[in-house]
Write a structure and sequence with these properties.
The chain is of the alpha+beta class and 161 residues long. The chain contains 4 helices and 10 strands, in the order E-H-E-E-E-H-E-E-E-H-E-E-H-E.
């Protein structure tokens, strides 16, 4: 069975724009997974730990036959392959991949929560997501475009193509 999933991508180290573009290509190479749509790239201010460079963020829609946990593990493996380290929460990173949504699944597991628990609060997620799925309904939260309209200004800047 094929499922629809959404992934947030971000980087603020080692040529962040290239890191995100490389990760998008790698997503398309995951087993039983294909990238269906990608957002524009966005420059965003860091959240949670301010003493670091701005991020480059994007979002991708994928079709996949992987289970949610298998997809998450594949995303974590891509992060590791690109040099992701986790010295402390919200630390600067070469690559950050978050599984945002998987069909309309609501999941509360020690390894994975769906939809992503802070998706609705983050401009760096909602702006790119709105590029590819503005009308999508986030279970328990509402439509992506409505969530985006309700956000305070978070300094998100769309980059020229």
């Amino acid at each position: 069975m094929i499922h629809r999933a959404f992934v947030a991508l971000g980087s603020n180290l080692e040529n962040p724009q290239q890191q995100v573009l490389h990760a998008l290509a790698e997503l398309d190479g995951l087993p039983e997974t294909r990238v269906i749509a990608t957002s524009a790239l966005y420059r965003t201010a860091p959240v949670g730990y301010d003493n670091q460079p701005d991020f480059i963020n994007a979002a991708a829609e994928v079709s996949t036959a992987l289970t949610p946990v298998a997809l998450l593990r594949a995303l974590l493996a891509l992060e590791t392959a690109q040099g992701r380290e986790r010295p402390f929460p919200n630390a600067p990173r070469v690559l950050d991949l978050d599984l945002l949504m998987y069909d309309d699944l609501e999941l509360h597991d020690p390894e994975l929560t769906l939809p992503h628990p802070r998706l609705h609060e983050r401009g760096f997620v909602l702006f790119p997501l709105a590029d590819i799925a503005a009308d999508m309904h986030v279970p328990g939260r509402g439509k992506v475009s409505d969530l985006l309209r309700g956000l305070p200004d978070q300094g998100v800047e769309r980059l020229a193509a």
